[in-house]
Every structure is written in C-alpha cells, then in structure tokens.
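User: My instructor asked us to take a sequence, write out its structure as tokens, and then describe one feature of it. I'm not sure where to start. Here is the sequence I was given:
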Amino acid sequence: MSSLKKINIQQLSKTARIDLAEELWDSIAEEQDDISVTDVQKNIIEERFAKYQASPTEGYNWEDIKNEMK
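Assistant: Let's start with the prediction itself. The structure tokens for your sequence are:
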C-alpha cells in the first residue's frame, strides 16, 4: 500500500484513471474464487430475492432510474 500513497491519482488523465480502475478490477476478478460472501450478505440477498418474487412488478426499472439521475 505504501507505493500507492506515492501516486497522485488526480494528476492522471481521465483515460489513465479509467485504465487503472480497469486493471485493478481485472486483478480482483482473476481471484474471484477467493472472494467469499458472508452469511449476513447471503441473508440480505435471499430476503431481497424473496421480496422480488412476491411482487416482481414493484419497484423501478433501470431506464427510470437512469433518467431520474440525469
């Protein structure tokens, strides 16, 4: 981590920062088998999925959410 502290990310161009983020994400994705989901996270997922199954038309679609953010 100490080498990361020496990088001033704000001095990088937007393209370079995007490339860096992609490289970081790819390095994590390569080791995805090492990433575990906790019991709490599993419970949240199960609860949300059950809620969805009980009422699949409730909520907002992605297009509405994107438009609202604009």
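For the description part of your assignment, you could build on this observation: The mean pLDDT is 88. Try explaining in your own words what that tells you about the chain.
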